[in-house]
Design goal:
By secondary structure, this protein is of the alpha/beta class. It contains 8 helices and 8 strands.
């Protein structure tokens, strides 16, 4: 089985992409090949709704290529799930977004979850997002996070973990949540140490996405055309700009 992971952040090196695949490999079966690529045509990092919209064309192009090359599923490696609906319309293989995958797992391990974002200023946006993921609002007890603008979650690993511990403890104490969701895929690998320090299950959105993609592919479950009708067949083209 092969899973194609689309990282919508521009400018990552081959080693950085391979590192993430190595960290994700324990969450899938030994027969699963993980392959990650990032954006190369657009200088975008997903830090806003604007970024998600601007990144969409290249994400869709990569997803279409993955299907042509025989991949069994596509993962959108971002908690905002950019272009996930468009990819589901276009592809016949499963398409899983990191945000939706993590939110759907939370009710399996707790009655209410707390969501920890990398940018606490995006909390109002994510409050609406979790309902779109198919999770009842009552299942998300509270949304918080860290002031992550300017923080490199990979380079400043210990600082990032310390900030998550403080934010997570506050969220648990104030909301009564019993499980936490890491609301950024740059937090890959921090769920276990965070859970050990806080004493609750912590869902890693990156791990959730690849595990769920594998499960769908193994079950032979494909995107329903009744839910995501195939777009009308006609030529489509666009040109990139700058903002």
């Amino acid at each position: 089985m092969k899973i194609f992971i689309i990282n919508p952040d521009y400018g990552m090196t081959d080693e950085q992409l391979a590192q993430r695949c190595r960290l994700l490999s324990p969450y899938v079966g030994p027969d699963v090949e993980l392959h990650m690529e990032c954006l190369t045509q657009n200088k975008i990092e997903i830090d806003s709704a604007l970024d998600a919209a601007l990144a969409a064309p290249e994400i869709i192009t990569l997803a279409a290529r993955a299907q042509r090359e025989g991949y069994d599923a596509v993962v959108i490696y971002c908690f905002s799930d950019p272009a996930v609906d468009a990819c589901r319309e276009l592809l016949h293989i499963p398409v899983v977004g990191g945000g939706q995958a993590a939110c759907l797992l939370a009710p399996l391990v707790g009655r209410q979850a707390g969501l920890l974002l990398a940018d606490v200023w995006r909390a109002p946006e994510k409050k609406l997002f979790v309902e779109q993921c198919g999770v009842a609002p009552g299942r998300i007890a509270a949304i918080g996070g860290v002031a992550g603008r300017g923080l490199d979650a990979w380079r400043d690993r210990e600082k990032t973990l310390a900030l998550l511990v403080d934010a997570g403890r506050k969220l648990l104490d104030e909301s009564g949540a019993q499980v936490l969701i890491l609301g950024c895929l740059s937090f890959l690998g921090l769920a276990k140490p965070l859970g050990e320090r806080l004493g609750v299950p912590v869902i890693d959105a990156a791990a959730a996405a690849v595990s769920l993609a594998e499960s769908l592919a193994r079950q032979g479950l494909h995107t329903s055309r009744r839910a995501y009708p195939e777009p009308p067949a006609r030529p489509r083209s666009w040109s990139g700009g700058a903002l």
